[in-house]
Every structure is written in C-alpha cells, then in structure tokens.
Amino acid sequence: MRDALCASVQYLIMSEKGAAIPYSRLVAIADALLEDADDDLALLARGIDALEQPVRDELLVSDQLNAYQVFYYFFRTEPDMLVQELLDLEPASSLVRGLKIEETDLLELSFGVRDAKPVIVISDGDKAVATFFGRSAYEQGREFLKSPEYR
Q1: For the chain, what is the largest distance between any 2 Cα atoms, rounded to a whole number of angstroms?
Q2: Residues 55, 115: one domain?
Q3: Number of domains composing the chain
C-alpha cells in the first residue's frame, strides 16, 4: 500500500529539491495524500513520511492539513476527544504560533511546530515552565502536568 501511495505522490515532487514549493503543487500533493489515505491517519502518516523533507516540512505547517493530522503524524497517538476536536478545527498553519490544547488549574499545554519538529510547551499563563521536543514531547508534557507541585 505504501508503494502505491509513494508512486501517486512521487510524480508531484520530483522537481522540488531546495526550492519553495508552489502553492498549486502543495495542494496537489496534499490532495493525493488525503485521497489515498481515505481518512486513515496511519496511512496518511506513512504517506507524509514518504515525502522528501522540504516538501514534508512545508506541508506540515500549511493550510492543506489540519492540526490533528499533524499531531497524529508526529506523535502517532490519538489525544482525548476534546483535544482531537480542537485540533481538527485548526489548520496546520496555526501550529507555527502554537495551540493551547490542554490546561489544568495552574498550567497550559500548547502544541506547535518549530524547525519542522513537534514542540510541547507548558506555561503558567505568563511564561514557559517546560518545553519538550520530538516524538515523545506530548507524553512528556502530559506527565509534567501530573507533577504534584502543579496539581
């Protein structure tokens, strides 16, 4: 299945090495990925993995995907239903600024993308108190929220 997905997208990205990707081409790539994945997030994530890095990096912060699809791509997990609904309603382009997706009485957990990597920032409303990067960032951030000093 991955080979078919790669083949359907590969013709769209052959000439994109190092250059900014034209909007029309990015739309075509996203459309092909979404059509081939047919609402299967795991298949969509594999398709995104198959893209060349510059194309992938641009797609992950574009309006062509929603924030939930990008969340799943990076963390390969499904968040709570309320978080999923919030992310579903936001374009991936909003992740450049970051989105508050969870909160406790004292802390807020935000998800964003910096330098093509996922970032989870825990803040007290005024300043960041912890920052986590990479594929385990969400899990680390949720554990931090459970810390006894912040309950």
Answers
A1: 53
A2: no
A3: 2
